[in-house]
Amino acid sequence: MGGTGMGFALIVVLFILLIIVGTSYVGGGYY
After folding, report:
1. DSSP for 4-26?
2. What is the distance between the alpha carbons of residues 27 and 29, in angstroms, rounded to a whole number?
3. How confident is the prediction along the chain (31 residues), in pLDDT tens digits per residue?
4. How far apart are CA 27 and CA 12, in angstroms?
């Protein structure tokens, strides 16, 4: 559970970060 759980958590965190950055980029400066 350690390796798989950490890998999944890392992917989720990166995905959420990508969504937050994309939303702030589109909503804030670009669009």
Report:
1. HHHHHHHHHHHHHHHHHHHHHII
2. 6
3. 566 778 888 999 999 988 887 776 666 555 4
4. 22
| Spatial distance between the Cα atoms of 15 and 9, rounded to a whole number of angstroms | 10
Amino acid at 27: G
19 φψ region: left (φ > 0), alpha (ψ -120 to 50), beta (else) = alpha
Residue 29's pLDDT is what? Answer: 55
The single residue listed with the structure tokens 């400066």 is 29
Two tokens at 4? 């798989």
